[in-house]
Structure formats: structure tokens, C-alpha cells
Design brief:
Blueprint: H1 7-32, H2 40-52, H3 54-61, H4 66-124
């Protein structure tokens, strides 16, 4: 479904095209006709002001209106701020994961050492029913 172009943009486009063509025709005219010295300053001033507006005309002709450029700059700034916030959140989450890993390693090493100690001590403390550590009855 094609989107409707606002009439304001159409007028901008037509006006830019007319101004661009005027400058081109004026330059072609000035290239072929000799201007009298008494009118030379007026023609130079008019041509200079028209040529100075060519940058804006070309930007409108290729579809970049100044309002769009400002809107995109604002959007770009907000996206930069969002990226900065996300980087800060990522860094804090990374620090949280690292501290959790350290705590986990500490707790697992304590658990492992306690388990090994209990296992070793249980082998040492085993006594037979008869009361001897080394007996031949084997718990009978």
C-alpha cells in the first residue's frame, strides 16, 4: 500500500526543481550573452544568491529535507544514549556473573573438601561390630 506524500513536500520539490532549472538557464544565458558593465554587479549578486541556495535545492531534490535531517539527528542521539545505558547494564550484569561464579567456586571447593574429609574420616573411624578395626569377621 503506497503511502501518500504530503502536499508540502510536493511543493518543496517543485520549487527546488524550478530554482535549480532557473540557475542552470541563467548560467547558460550568461555564458552566451555579454552583460553591460553597469549591470554586472546586479547580475553577480543575483547569480551568487541563487548559487548559494543550490545546496539546499539539491538536498530537497534528492529527498533530504532539513526537518528530516534534524529528526534523524535527534533519533541518532537518543539511540546513542540507549546504547550507553545498555553498555552500563551489560557491565553491571557481567560483574554480577563474575561475583556469582567466584562465590560458586568458593562454595563448591568448601563442599568438596568437606565431602573428601568426611569420606576419609569415615574410612578411618570404621569399626567392626566386634570392636576391632582390622577383623576377620567382617561385620557378622
Amino acid at each position: 500500500m503506497p503511502s501518500k506524500i504530503p502536499i508540502k513536500f510536493i511543493y518543496h520539490y517543485i520549487g527546488s526543481a524550478v530554482l535549480f532549472m532557473t540557475v542552470i538557464f541563467l548560467l547558460m544565458y550568461l555564458g552566451n550573452v555579454k552583460i553591460p558593465p553597469e549591470n554586472k554587479d546586479i547580475f553577480v549578486a543575483i547569480t551568487g544568491s541563487l548559487s548559494a541556495s543550490l545546496a539546499m535545492v539539491i538536498s530537497v531534490l534528492i529527498g533530504k529535507s532539513p526537518e528530516e535531517v534534524e529528526e534523524l539527528k535527534k533519533k541518532n542521539e537518543s539511540l546513542k544514549m540507549t546504547v550507553e545505558q545498555l553498555v552500563k547494564q551489560k557491565d553491571s550484569l557481567e560483574a554480577l556473573v563474575i561475583s556469582t561464579q567466584k562465590d560458586l567456586v568458593d562454595n563448591l571447593s568448601l563442599f568438596g573438601s568437606n565431602f573428601i574429609d568426611n569420606l576419609y574420616n569415615s574410612k578411618l573411624d570404621k569399626k567392626c561390630i566386634c570392636g576391632e578395626n582390622d577383623c576377620s569377621c567382617k561385620g557378622k
